[in-house]
Amino acid sequence: MSTQKKEDILDKFCDPEHPVIVGFEKIQAAQELIGDAVVKTPCRRSQMSDMFNMEIYFKKEFLQYTGSFKERGARTSLLNLSPEQKAKGVITASAGNHALALSYHGKCLGIPVSVVMPTIAPLMKIKACEKFGAKIKISGHNICESRVIALEMGQSEGMMYINGYDHPDIIAGQGTIGLEIVEQVPDLDACIIPIGGGGMIAGTALAIKKKCPDVTIIGVEPEHCPSFAEARKAKKPIYTPTTSTLADGLAVPTVGVNAFHTADKLIDKIVTVNEENIALAILRCIELEKAVVEGGGAVGLAAIIQGFVPELEGKKVVVILSGGNIDTTVLDRVIERALAEDERLVRFQVSVSDRPGGIAELTKIIADLGVSIKDIFQERPWEKHDVFAVMVKVVCETRDAEHSKQLHDAIKQHYPNNHLIWGPSYD
Questions:
Q1: Domains of the chain: residue spans and CATH
Q2: What pTM does this model have?
């Protein structure tokens, strides 16, 4: 391993002192280069259009073979290698979609791929990369530490480091999404694009603005990692503290230098969405689009749900659903959180008689309204008001917010003085 100081290790393709502003011709070249090896994903009108009074078209990048848009940039960067570099191979640091895409297309093209993944990387993604023939090294507590290790390995072993969101070829490859969008949706008014490291919005916005200058470009970040918005304030990429988010694929603390300088003047508006609406967007995609979309892929819809783009009402809008690799162990929790936010999963506690028939009386009220009990729990020691009463905690499933209100009103009417405590929707 090289003895070079870590702070001296530089990715020559992503130099903060000499940022590369990607040109439109590189995107055109990338489209020709990747050809049919990457899926030209559908972009069709959604039935959600009527819900939000706008013509919504979903660009379904989660239908790529490895489940995300990352394949476009990965294949472009691999095909642009010199014959000598193809023989030596490439290396990257990634815990998710970029690792999968690079590993898969490396296998297809016969190019050796190494990936340094942090210790927090999901086991399912580690195994998937190994299945594609990548050499995996688990090292680093986070992606920043893994990146330094990967750069060191690349220098010592002659492998090129490919940044998953900032390498110029990556940005160009992601820009092919924009070329497809303007072809698939004529007379487009706006495009809503997730922002993580910035590679996708840089390439896509460039392609769209070059073809259709009047199209409004709106970027969306999770509020737990607003790194592009902070970079705009500072007029350069800066480190932005992040916290855990459902949009984990977008949690990049420092946006790419090339991506920022390419995209900044092309983005008309940036919004940040909360966790509750990201969860709701995932649920809406499952129920109405029959599509499983990861948190980072759903933030564009979350911006619409949260009411951050009222200026788009009546307009024709493309929303990029950028990936579908949500951790299956998380999906169930996300759905339940979304149902609670949607007031279709409610909880309450109420004091009822502890004599025979007391609980039956409560459950009959619930059943008569067509509400389903998901969980029920009794607590006697903490009922301080009446020794002949029991505190009952209930979790119920309802049809919608109005149905939940009917249940609330019925319980309150039947037990007017029984210390009713309702969920977060009712005080």
A1: 27-69+169-339 (3.40.50.1100), 72-164 (3.40.50.1100), 343-422 (3.30.70.260)
A2: 0.90
